[in-house]
Amino acid sequence: MARTLSPPARGRFVIQVLFCERLCSNARGMFQPLSVFIGLRYVRSRQHKFFVSLITWVSLAGVSLGVAALIVILSVMNGFEGELRERLLSLSAQAHVTATGVAAPDGERELRERLQHLPGVVGVAPYIELTALAVRLPEMLPVVLRGIDPGLEAAVADVRPLLVEGSIDALTAGSNAVILGRDIADQLGARVGDHVTLLVPTASANGTPEPRLREFTVGGVFQAGLEDHDNTLILAHIDDVRAFAPLAQGASGLRLRFTDPLQVAQFMPAVRAAAGPNYTSSDWTQENASYFRAIRIEKTMMALILLLIVAVAAFNIVAMLVMVVNDKRTDIAILRTFGTSPQTIMRAFITQGLAIGWFGVAAGVALGVLLARNVSTIVPVLERLLHFQFLDADVYYITSIPSDLHPHDVAWISGAAFVLTLLSTIYPALRAARTPPADALRYE
Fold first, then answer.
1. Which residues contact 325 (CB under 8 A, 6 or more apart)?
2. How far apart are the first and last CA of the chain?
3. How much is the average pLDDT of 38-59?
4. What secondary structure letter does DSSP report for 161?
5. Residues 6+ positions from 26 with CB-CB distance below 8 Å
6. 152: helix, coil or strand?
7. Which runs of consecutive H residues, i.e. helices, occur in 167-224?
8. Which pTM does this prediction carry?
9. d(Cα 322, Cα 57) in Å, to the nearest integer?
10. DSSP-derived secondary structure for 230-288
């Protein structure tokens, strides 16, 4: 038979319940003081069987670990997303305004002055992009040749922090100098001071193909940590590119930078209005939509998978409360005999389940926030203890695990866990409320 309160203790408990019921007789709502009193009294009770107590602690630990794991993993994924965004924007502008035809230099300067005075715009720089072939025998590589103005480019996408060899000062008009991506330099075997031949396909006025060839001098090497840049991009002075291939088909226009890259969609309508019909515009969220769509899908699936851990722990709460109801059948019958309503009994067991579940959620949130804020400290310790490097520098450009804790992630995770624990209390509470007093007291 399940262990229950001794007769003297049961009597004191009933007297306390009746006294509390008399004081709280006018209370209304989901959590009446009497229900809270009974539920919390059962939470603090030491009369549970060992197996019931074990399941209680397992449920609490499961909820805590599930919530903590969800917070930490989403924070790490946010960190990787931010790292990817920074690397994408390290050499890419936040927005482009591209001429639909051949833009006149005077018109481009006037447009640049108009765009610089728009709200949120902090930098505007001209550019030209051409598809070319980099040749240094015996290697030939398809590349993107981008002409920039070094003086204006620093306000849009500064390459100087990414340089591993050479200097941006090498890019002067008439110098025929280029800055190569690290992977291009390695594949061509080129270093600062070496010569690289660039071939750009062009066509004459009558449509006859006339490829252009010119020898450039390597003035620097950059490493952005992103394959789209390191493996394909070559930088040169914009005047040298114009003189090299004036008839080449490519993109030309202006590159923009805003005060907040995450709010770029709010600034683009003003940019489009200022540019007019002769220019098309796009921002970095459109150009790199596939990257961030993939990250969102991964985050969503990871969140759903980890929520299953919380759901399993919530099912343990169901099992625990069902056994508590069976253990407390006599107490429930006595309370019902003294006039306690079934609704009060139901709320009492909901309170007990929520107290256990919400304590687990609170502990999980505290643990998850603590771990997410200290990932950069914890991971090196684990690597030393396990003699294993999570991100090998020979394989990954990112050698440390970033973490970016978002308060709204913590809010929805804790809210979802609260809802799951609430749902897990409904069935046991209904079962307690339907306990027949006569059947429960028949063998007492």
1. 332, 349, 428, 431, 432, 435
2. 11
3. 59
4. G
5. none
6. helix
7. 182-188
8. 0.69
9. 15
10. HTTEEEEEHHHHHHH-TT--EEEEEEEEES-GGGHHHHHHHHHHHH-TTEEEEEHHHHT
* Nearest C-alpha neighbor of 235 from the set 183, 179, 163, 195: 179
Encoding tokens for residue 213? 């060839």
Nearest Cα neighbor of 89 from 18, 157, 144, 39 is 157
Specify the 3-state DSSP secondary structure of 167. coil
User: What does the angle CA 218 – CA 221 – CA 226 come to, to the nearest 5 degrees?
Assistant: 135
| Residue 57 half-sphere exposure toward CB, CA atoms < 13 A | 6
Structure tokens at 232: 């394909």
Q: Per residue in 130-167, pLDDT tens? A: 888 898 888 888 999 998 888 888 888 878 888 888 88
Which amino acid would we find at residue 154?
A
**Token representation of residue 396:** 């990954």
Q: What's the one-letter identity of residue 417?
A: A
Q: Of 131, 217, 220, nearest to 179 (Cα)?
A: 220
Beta pairing class for 212-222 and 177-181:
parallel
Q: Tokens 């400290």 — which residue?
A: 377
